[in-house]
Design a protein that fits this description.
The chain is an alpha/beta fold. Helices cover 31% and strands 15% of the residues. The protein is globular.
């Protein structure tokens, strides 16, 4: 089983002067779900190389078993430091694609032509697509075969407006994931803030927040 994981290359948190990037738990937990299941995992990002880590996700209170495992795993660290440039990745041969979140994808992957094309290709060929937390931002522009937004009529979830409010970044982000999914015709559902909540609709799997990352990865594997 070959899984493509696409991470952000964006490290600026709007005009705040602070850094952002990908969320460590949302990469580490799915990465080990895939690895432990014997999957061949390829990591990609728009710029290639080491993707920026959101420093907040590296704080002591954000650590999980998966992040601790990653910090002791030199091979995984080398994998992450050498992501391939997304534009060079052919979707051929991959069984599924997974997008970890963090605020970074709101700026780059949401607008990235290569990512949009990749998602549309996976959808058209009926291969599983998963995104967790802020990563459902990548569904802003992709269209289905009917020309409508890919999430139109589909049950989806993603980082809630109230979770963004709790993070204090409602006025910083370029758009709110919940609002965008609804505007694109998605049947948006959510669970309790910060608790694991994952929905599957056909071959599309979305998770609400960092706590949802492992379950999102497991549900993706179930579809392959």
């Amino acid at each position: 089983m070959k899984i493509l994981m696409v991470l952000t290359s964006h490290d600026k948190l709007g005009d705040t002067g602070k850094k952002t990037g990908f969320w460590l738990e949302e990469f580490a937990a799915p990465y080990y779900v895939f690895k432990d299941a014997g999957c061949d995992v390829t990591l990609a990002s728009p710029k290639g190389g080491q993707p920026p880590l959101d420093p907040t996700s590296d704080a002591d209170d954000a650590q999980t078993e998966a992040t601790k495992r990653f910090k002791g795993d030199k091979a995984a660290q080398t994998d992450l430091a050498n992501t391939v440039v997304l534009a060079t990745v052919s979707p051929d041969g991959f069984d599924a694609v997974f997008y970890p979140g963090g605020h970074g994808p709101l700026w780059d992957l949401a607008e990235d032509a290569d990512s949009i094309k990749l998602i549309e290709t996976f959808a058209r060929t009926d291969r599983p697509i998963a995104a967790v937390c802020h990563a459902p931002a990548v569904f802003k522009h992709p269209k289905g075969a009917d020309g409508k937004p890919l999430v139109s009529g589909k049950t989806v979830t993603g980082f809630t407006n109230t979770e963004e409010e709790g993070a204090g970044l409602t006025d910083v982000v370029p758009f709110l994931v919940e609002d965008m999914l609804k505007a694109n015709g998605g049947n948006y559902e959510k669970g309790a803030d910060w608790a694991s909540f994952v929905v599957t609709d056909g071959k599309l799997v979305t998770g609400q927040n960092p706590a949802s990352s492992e379950e999102t990865a497991r549900k993706l594997i179930d579809l392959v």
